[in-house]
Design a protein that fits this description.
alpha/beta, 4-stranded mixed β-sheet, 12 helices, 15 strands, 15% strand
Length: 397
């Protein structure tokens, strides 16, 4: 019996084997394709219609259009993908490296930095990120609560506007009623990453080590605002989406960023409050957590906090062996990713080698359900079209 993409994804998350392993490409901001690679892929395939739209300015990620979604047999999409539901969202020209024509959201502004790079400018005319000469990403600068340290109450944490909520509500409703995709709503709910972004990476790590009182007050304020936004977000899209994406990078290549004890002291209670809000109010919505690096230390905690699916499953990081992960946790959490290790450089691999790795990962992770295929993080700008096709052809075969 043929099942829909939506049913396929939900079957996998409920730890039952669907007719085939579900596939993700671009349903959130760590499973996609950089705009340069996407433009090259379209050119290679002879696709001349549509646009190359950069929807993630910092990572320079492209919206994945239906023709590519269909070719890769993708089962899940981001509800903010305007190529699937263009409701008047405004775009403007943005030249990619090498002069490749593209578009970017009209809300972004930038200017040359007089060193061959670019500065991203906020609505007050101040730089908030930079793309150095020769770099393909924007990196954030000038943390707003950096040194000298300011109380978090002096910083106006962002709230979702009525206009934003109405826009995503319309898109989610349209996609739910007019497509068979599983739908991912990108919320975030970051705690460690938010602290590092607002205070600066080193500052916030020192805050946790040296000033637990400040850190707890800081995190409590974050949680308060996240919950305010989350409740309104769920009211807008909770009846349409199947997954809500949270994020908090806790790992590095060599191990966790912080000890499990420190995680339990500061971060875990916040995660549990936020994820529990979803479970208590919209129990049918699955909680998807993106957490890079070596995070095996925390997987039991993720499960306890209410996480249903974990991404990107960075299999080259310490402790993230696929067989160990599946045997230890695979009947209690869905692994979303880990399907091809992009750190191994697909350009240096043959198509047979790529196919072998992809199919091995699917055999390991897919047994008994609890798996959605995606590469380990985003397809980078330098990856050639032939190797991108090899990854997804192997996944769908």
């Amino acid at each position: 019996m043929t099942i829909t993409s939506r049913e396929r994804v939900l079957t996998a998350i409920e730890h039952r084997e669907p007719d085939k392993v579900p596939i993700d490409c671009g349903a959130m901001r760590s499973t996609g394709i950089m705009a340069i690679a996407y433009a090259n892929l379209k050119q290679y395939l002879g696709i001349t219609n549509g646009r190359v739209r950069v929807y993630d300015f910092g990572q320079q990620l492209a919206e994945i259009e239906r023709e590519i979604l269909d070719r890769f047999e993708v089962d899940v999409v981001d509800i903010e993908n305007t190529s699937l539901c263009d409701d008047g969202y405004e775009w403007k020209p943005f030249p990619l490296s090498g002069g490749i024509p593209a578009e970017v959201s009209s809300r972004y502004s930038w200017k040359p930095d007089e060193k061959g790079g670019y500065l991203a400018i906020d609505d007050r005319g101040k730089p908030w990120a930079r793309m150095p000469n020769g770099c393909l990403y924007f990196e954030t600068i000038q943390p707003p609560l950096g040194e000298p340290r300011k109380p978090i109450k002096e910083y106006d944490l962002p709230s979702l506007t009525d206009e934003q909520l109405e826009s995503i509500r319309r898109r989610a409703k349209y996609l739910f009623e007019n497509t068979e995709y599983a739908l991912m709503g990108g919320f975030g709910g970051n705690i460690l990453e938010a602290g590092q972004s607002l205070r600066g990476w080193g500052n916030f790590m020192m805050d946790m080590a040296e000033d637990p009182g400040f850190t707890e007050a800081f995190i409590n304020r974050l949680v308060e605002r996240h919950l305010e936004n989350l409740k309104r977000y769920l009211e807008a899209v909770g009846d349409s989406i199947q997954l809500i994406q949270m994020g908090d990078d806790l790992g590095t290549q060599a191990g966790p960023q912080l000890s499990r004890e420190m995680y339990h002291q500061f971060i875990f209670p916040a995660h549990k409050k936020i994820y529990s809000c979803v479970k208590q109010n919209y129990p049918q919505v699955k909680v998807f957590l993106h957490s890079c690096g070596s995070v095996e230390t925390f997987i039991e905690d993720f499960i306890e906090a209410g996480v249903d699916a974990l991404n990107p499953v960075q299999t080259s990081a310490v402790g993230m062996d696929p067989v160990h992960l599946k045997q230890t946790y695979g009947n209690r959490i869905t692994f979303w990713g880990g399907g091809y290790d992009l750190q191994s450089d697909p350009n240096a691999s043959t198509e047979d080698e790529i196919r072998e790795q992809v199919q091995e990962r699917i055999r390991i992770f897919g047994k008994g359900g609890g798996y959605v295929f995606a590469a380990v993080h985003n397809i980078q700008a330098n990856i050639v079209p032939e190797k991108i096709l090899a990854i997804y052809n192997a996944a769908k075969s």
